[in-house]
Amino acid sequence: MPNKKKHVYQEVDRLANLNKDVCTYLWDNPELGGTETKSSAYMRKLMSDNGFAVTNHEKLEFAFMAEYGSGHPVIAILGEYDALPGLSQKRDVVEKTPVVAGGPGHGCGHNLIGSAAATGAIALKNIMEKEGLTGTIRFFGCPEEELLSGKVKMAYYKMFDGCDIALSWHPMTANIVMDNSYLACAYAKFYFTGTTSHAAFAPHLGRSALDAMELMNVGVNYLREHVISDARIHYATDSCGFPPNIVPGKAVNWYCIRAPKMSDVKSILDRIIKVAKGAAMMTETDVEVKIEHGCCEMLPNKKFADLTYSVMKEVPLPVYTANELQYAAHLQSTVNPAAVKAENDTYGRVEILHSALAPRELAKSQKISASSDSGDVSYIMPMNLFTTACWPFGVAPHTWQASAASGSNFGAKGALYAAKVLASVGYELLTNPAKTQEIIQEFKDKKAEYSPMYQE
Question: Chain-centre distance of CA 244, in angstroms?
């Protein structure tokens, strides 16, 4: 059966230099969430220069929407561009070598996400013009994903209102469609306040906030046995700079709770709050709880995943040069061999860069145990998620190796492949209204089973 989307691939290939330029600019100018001044300005200009009407939001400085077309379906394409702290990395270097010591870097490949999403949107817009297709494309510039807050805020301010369906992807080590992705997550800080005193002269007059903080952590460690096995409880501490010769009057615990559903997260967080209050009672201190932010799990949509997989079966996979494979091999040699073997075993291939599409049945069993604010979008409209091989087998996100790979030529090729998938899935949604409606109907049927945080 002839492939009816070859012209889509050709249009994306025509934009290959643009894709590489965006990958490079964002990688060379990494900015943390909430500070994406250059990145958002660059992406706004890119979309405006390519025929999109850009709309900003007065409450969200670094978020925007770029729109083309009219009528339904209204397709949202999600782009990101924030970086991570401490992952600055020089280009084409096979050891940890920051450009700026302690500086940010694209260790999760958001430079690739922004580039592929923009390239795919522009290619789809160009095809719509040529073929006179009805429908609307909305490219969303989404800040603060690493803070798990950008799209949550955008949803709160109704930036996604009026959209019918959303396209998303993520760099990773494999080419795969994800049916089950992203855990729900919530962040909370626990501010303990006690009474300061001289630790040697009059310790009995003090009430240690640090003791309360540590007792809370001990209590939560005992709690871990009594929560669901798929949950994750992470924490960091802050003794607020008190030296050891002072009974500290301030201390802070910062907790992150992840679980498959937001209802699980809320239940666990309620129990952690009780532990914190108990620790405060034991030490005669006070505790203030501040829920910082959180995001929902991704609402699965089988029909959308099936459509995405059918498209990915047709899109040509990247071809790598000997130099690209050599650099990828050097990066792979710096990670734990057990991690490489685990991925070789998972995908049934011993290789450096994944050169196939993971089978559909394997895709159904795989999960991403991280969280993303994209989960909140999946409760507003049906959303897909796929990954492409932008990093060698064994490389984990949030590492200097991922940052190095995200700035490489093979990383940009993985993004270009993703752009072809995004544009091709978008083309299917525009030209196959029956399939689009099936996806939307599954979304409506599934949504009632879940409990999104932002609606409560």
Answer: 40
